[in-house]
Amino acid sequence: MPSRERYIEKHRDQGLCIRCPNEAMPGRYLCPKCARKQGIINKNNYEINRSYRLEYRRNQVDKYKKEGRCTECSAPLDEEDRGFVTCLTCRIKATVPRTGRLNAINYAHYARKFQLVPVR
Ligand SMILES: [Zn+2]
Ligand SMILES: [Zn+2]
User: Fold this and answer.
1) Residues 63 and 83 in one domain
2) pLDDT tens-place string over residues 14-66
3) Which terminus of the chain, N or C, has fewer Cβ atoms within 10 Å?
4) Any domain includes 9
């Protein structure tokens, strides 16, 4: 078997891109970069665009974490947010049942109820 084919086969087995050492997209033989070079990725390809967005989002989350900012809305985190990766507002939004609007009163209530602020 020519070495080129062996190389491709090996990468396929390992879930790697067959054109470069990067990880291939799930269920694909190419990484997003090579797929784009090949013209495989286009606006209409929802699945691939989705994996792009997820990757972008992951990078963004990493960046915000390093900078000590909320990974949802990028607001700077303060003392109360120590140990969390999102700000209080986002934590409440993510936890509170979707029913009802948030106001100053139930905001504080939920913050305590779900222990989204440190217990003093
Ligand atoms: Zn590649
Ligand atoms: Zn936030």
Assistant:
1) no
2) 889 988 889 888 778 888 888 888 776 665 666 767 777 888 889 999 999 99
3) C
4) yes
- Pair of tokens at residue 59: 């990078």
Residues 78/80/85/87 CA torsion (nearest 10 deg): -80
Backbone angles phi, psi at 106, to 5 degrees: -75, -20
Domain that holds residue 56: 3-67
93 shares a domain with 39:
no
State which amino acid sits at residue 9. E
User: Residue 77 CA: which ligand is closest?
Assistant: 2
Q: Rounded to the nearest whole angstrom, what is the distance from the C-alpha of residue 113 to the centroid of ligand 1? A: 47
- Ligand 2 center to 112 CA (angstroms): 17
Averaged over 87-91, what is the pLDDT?
A: 86
Same domain, 54 and 7: yes
Q: Can you read off the two tokens belonging to residue 74?
A: 């990028």
